[in-house]
Amino acid sequence: MTGFDLSVGAARAAFAPLGLDLSDEEALYRHTVAVWCQLVEPGDSAAGRVVASLGPVEALARLAAASPFAELTAREDSDARKRWMPRLSARAVSDTLRIAGARGVRLVTRHDPVWPQQLDDLGPHAPMCLWVRGDAAALARLDPSVAVVGARAASGYGDLVARELAAELAGSGIPVVSGGAYGIDGAAHRAALSAGGLTVALLAGGAERAYPAGHTQLIDHIAATGIVASEVPCGSAPTKWRFLQRNRLIAALSTATVVVEAGWRSGSLNTAGHAAALGRGLGAVPGPITSPGSAGTHRLIRDYGGAACITSPDDVRELLGLAAASRGDGGPTPRAGGAAERAEDRGRTDDTTRVRDALSARIGRDADDVARRAGMAVDEVQAMLGLLRLEGAVLVGADGWRLAALHG
Amino acid sequence: MTGFDLSVGAARAAFAPLGLDLSDEEALYRHTVAVWCQLVEPGDSAAGRVVASLGPVEALARLAAASPFAELTAREDSDARKRWMPRLSARAVSDTLRIAGARGVRLVTRHDPVWPQQLDDLGPHAPMCLWVRGDAAALARLDPSVAVVGARAASGYGDLVARELAAELAGSGIPVVSGGAYGIDGAAHRAALSAGGLTVALLAGGAERAYPAGHTQLIDHIAATGIVASEVPCGSAPTKWRFLQRNRLIAALSTATVVVEAGWRSGSLNTAGHAAALGRGLGAVPGPITSPGSAGTHRLIRDYGGAACITSPDDVRELLGLAAASRGDGGPTPRAGGAAERAEDRGRTDDTTRVRDALSARIGRDADDVARRAGMAVDEVQAMLGLLRLEGAVLVGADGWRLAALHG
């Protein structure tokens, strides 16, 4: 290895600009995470696997020692090193951390209590860390949350709908996640801010810079009360790949994704695809069939196992598993209890009921998702789903498991 | 009975205004159908049962002779006679037939080769007959056909979409059925006429009168090349009940129903409900969520087992089981063969394939419907569906059977 310094001293020195009071272990851990973040592009599953298996410190030590990774095939190992090694630069890491310190960007890792665990649903594609401007603690408050996304070239209709949905949802306590872009994203962020709600902008480039530049003021406003975050280190430019990977992050961080307006081949369909693949809620807002801006949302609604047709904030709440807001009610009422309530319920409700409660008649969910919602082990859930299927109480299709509606 | 004359002579005299060359048997049959039509309101299932069981002639003879109907309970029998007897009037029947003769309205019964057999899917609620102005022979050409229906108070958007869909579909040889009303119905009929296609107006009152009166000219134009039909006798006023029953007739006559625009409680949702109940194709056109005229169509799309989201004529063709029109192609290409082609196929394709072909991944169908489409016996089909279900190839839900899409 090129003499890269993996010592605690180097870690402490690199982290000095962030002015944190770190233990040796923490400094080392955080430094190696920052290094990994520098080495890999978002979604690099080889890195995800070795880091998940060995931890970032040990994985980096092996990389530096050129000792093969048992987690990878020889070919994967060789390809990965070719990708990673040229990017190993102490200078790049210290530059990143200096920018982070100067711009108030925090590094949030899996060791942080505020780490949004829903990101781990991405498996080996999960981000190494998040670089966060703003209220990092609010990361822990994004379940439920809704991604409101859509075309940059929004129509007046799309802009209006994005504002109305975001204002109503954020105003009632549901965080609104988006990508900080022109068009639908910007409308959603602005409306959430105006409503005094929490909003999260996930950027494709470094969290310290506004992209697009025309949204510098908006993104500063978001950071002032909400969250601006990225998985790429400070100083990174947004690239096409990073935009696509940022989309997966939006989908994974949010409980549900709602596409407000999207052309036939819009990037928002990519976000929607990630949401569907992750078993997250997915909704799309219909519009005039004469509007190209609604061609993509209609495509989502039409396709088998497709998106819920969203026509109101209450439709979004339903997608989130929340009861419709009563008029004058300040916040959403959970339909099913939270984790604590579920645990308490164990004595009272049987497993069948809990699996049923974790299913929807409209949205297919895979067994992992059902297990997560039911607070049960996946194999327990799979067996239960099999039984319920025999009874005709549940259906399984390409989009996963769903309740059979008895009165259609 | 009140001296009502059931003789052949009376039948011939009553039918004289229509100037038909009828055998004694035909004259008697048609006369008793016309009488039944006078006695009952549309959808009277007690009448449907006794006429289906005994035939109209024998059923009327028993009614006249006050002999009980074995098909009805004593209570049903008594209630039915109370409904029917006060309406028994030779004068009313001859008036109806005189108007029919004067206005060129034909009586089409189940004995006519042009009788649209899809109406018999209504079972005991099927109409006794149809009173038809225009090209009665075209009744036999309505499979496939599409009902294009919607709000009377259509928006400019709804009007445009109805016109575009109807013109494209009718122009490519798919008959357009509707209700002759203001708004969407009128737009659909007009566009179909302009495109030189076949269009059918089903009226809630007598076929000889235009309702609404403002559509007198339009309805005359429809009768000139297409069909204006009603199940109630000439001289009957449209009533609320008859409008609702007329909606069931639109749904039953058409292969699929597409709702273009509908308020939250629009009558078009009633037509849609009939289409769904009959296992017919059902589609709805999305629109701006800010438009009250699209609230009903979004409701149809959203509801479980709901309507297909229709954004183009090709979406309607898919609903009809037809392949998308190629550009420059004069007419639709059947995706599955017609009845004759299916019969020919018997040697080549096995029953499983035929049952699969009769299913859709999107629209649930009941076993009767599947059997009809497959040209197989219902119990044969039910057994096959059970096997396919075990294989996971089909799903069953509240809306019936559908294909499991393997690649969602």
How would you describe this structure to a colleague?
The structure is a homodimer of 408-residue chains. By secondary structure, chain A is an alpha/beta fold. Chain A folds into three domains: 8-102, no CATH class; 123-323, Rossmann fold, CATH 3.40.50.450; 336-403, Winged helix-like DNA-binding domain superfamily/Winged helix DNA-binding domain (Arc Repressor Mutant, subunit A), CATH 1.10.10.10. The first copy, chain A, is 44% helix and 11% strand. Chain A has 16 helices and 13 strands. Chain A has helices at 8-15, 24-39, 45-64, 74-84, 90-103, 156-171, 184-194, 216-225, 240-253, 268-277, 295-302, 313-319, 339-345, 351-357, 367-374, 378-390, and strands at 105-108, 130-134, 146-149, 176-178, 199-202, 227-230, 256-259, 281-284, 308-309, 322-323, 333-334, 394-397, 400-403. In chain A, the strands form three sheets. A nine-stranded mixed beta sheet of chain A has the order 1-2-6-5-4-3-7-8-9, with helices on both faces. In chain A, strand 5 (199-202), helix 8 (216-225) and strand 6 form a beta-alpha-beta unit. Chain A is globular and about 60 Å long. Residues 326-349 of chain A have low confidence and may be disordered. Chain A binds chain B through residues 157, 160-161, 285-290, 294-295, 298, 301-305, 308-312, 315, 361-362, 364, 392, 395-399, 404-408, and chain B through 157, 160-161, 285-290, 294-295, 298, 301-302, 304-305, 308-312, 315, 361-362, 364, 392, 395-399, 404-408.
